Amino acid sequence: MAPTTYSGALQPKKKAELLEIALALDISEKGTKEEIQARIKKHLDDNPHLGDNPAFTGLFGRRKRSVQPHLPSSCSVPSSTSESAADAVAKKTGVSVKTNGPVHTRASRRSAVLDAVREGTPVPEAREVSMMFKNPPLSPEEPTSTLIATQTPSRGIAGPLVTSTPRSVLRNIPKPSIQLATSAFQRIQTDTRQTANKLLLASRLVLSNSTNVWLISVLLELLYILYIVIPWKTIEVILFPVASNLGFSIYYPPLATFASPTFWMILIHWAGPSIIIPAIFGSLVSFHPAISSTARAPRASFFDPLTASVIRVAAQYAYPYDALKHTTECIDILGPKWRLLDASVAAALAFAEAIAAAPGAYADPKQRQRVTKRSTLPEGTMP
After folding, report:
1. What percentage of the chain exceeds 90 in pLDDT?
2. Which ranges does the record mark as transmembrane (predicted)?
């Protein structure tokens, strides 16, 4: 049985034909049609010796023809037949054709083949000879004309056109500018610095208020107590159950905790000395002087954080947690150390705010008194 031969281009072949060629080449036949085609093409490029195999010679036909270089007309060497044809034409027409070109030896032919392919126009003498070959005299003898006709197309082969990009297009192409990149980076740095400064100033304004400090300390204590007292439960949420076990947990308090009297007793005993008693005294007692445009209508603040912080320290120290341990277990979740420390820090910050605002608050009543005295004196008299 004769061996199977493969020929033709790979592009128009069907997938079944490509699979057969891949099996014959002993390469992988898996994948799509394009993948098999690319795999066969790479295998043929890597193994040029397969062109000697009759079964695969047809696959190398177009590749070999495309690889052969095209020599320009200036590099062609006239043969002996062309020379004899030129002599015959010269004898019949009476026009002598002189060829003053260099003699092509074997070494010169090798160098001409190895030289780079360049575009060029034929010299005047060669052009005249070619024109003579194209228009031979009418005679019954036609062998020379046929030889000339078969050789002239080789002189008409033109090399690839060399295209050049216009300078106007090159000028319009934008070039990367270091100054633009530097200015953009500096702008980003400036915006980031301004945003950070704004956040810092906003945080400073919030934390520099003694009322906010008192509320934040109370909120932190409440969150810690809820975290310790409530028996938290979790729900596992898986984002991609098929691909992986990636997910997160959601914590939630059981409803039975809010029905327990112990939970509410712990919160009440904590809120008494921490929130209720300081809030009552902070609303009733205020050591801030009256700050108003007129002395007859003072503007009193609704809540004095300094008074509330001082009363909170006293209540945390005097509240009978030890006596209440017999009725409710674990009633003091924070402990005396942390309760007093938290209340003392809030009171110290409230004192700092009051001391910083004292000179301005003390100067305002004196200024109002001076304005009142000047308004009561008759015109033209000095105080």
Report:
1. 23
2. 213-230, 237-256, 262-287
Report d(CA 270, CA 159) in Å as an integer. Answer: 97
- Could you tell me the sign of the dihedral formed by the alpha carbons of 283, 289, 291, 294, in that order? positive
Report CA 182 to chain centroid distance, whole Å: 19
**Tokens describing residue 332:** 């003091």
pLDDT digits (tens, 9 = 90+) for 117-161: 455 555 545 455 455 555 555 544 444 444 444 444 444 444 445
Q: Are 297 and 307 in contact (CB under 8 A)?
A: no
Burial of residue 199 (number of CB atoms within 10 Å: 0-12, 13-18, 19+):
exposed
Rounded to whole angstroms, the Cα distance separating 357 from 297 reads 21
| Cα dihedral across residues 115, 113, 64, 62: positive or negative | positive
Which band of pLDDT confidence, cut at 50, 70 and 90, is reported for residue 101?
Answer: very low
Nearest to 319 by CA among 282, 271, 280, 265: 271
Question: Looking up tokens 């295998």, which residue turns up?
Answer: 43
Residue 324 near residue 269, CB atoms below 8 Å: yes
Locate 327 and state its tokens: 């009725």
Terminal-residue alpha carbon distance, the chain? 137
Residue 7: strand pairing partners: 58
Task: Please classify residue 244 by burial: count the beta carbons closer than 10 Å to its beta carbon, then call 0-12 exposed, 13-18 middle and 19+ buried.
Answer: exposed
User: Which amino acid is residue 234, in one-letter code?
Assistant: T
The two tokens of residue 296 are 């007859």
Distance CA 197, CA 193 (A): 6
What is the 8-class DSSP label of residue 26? T
Return the pLDDT at 16. 83
Q: Between helices 336-376 and 210-229, what is the axis angle to 10°?
A: 160
CA torsion through residues 354, 356, 359, 364, sign: negative
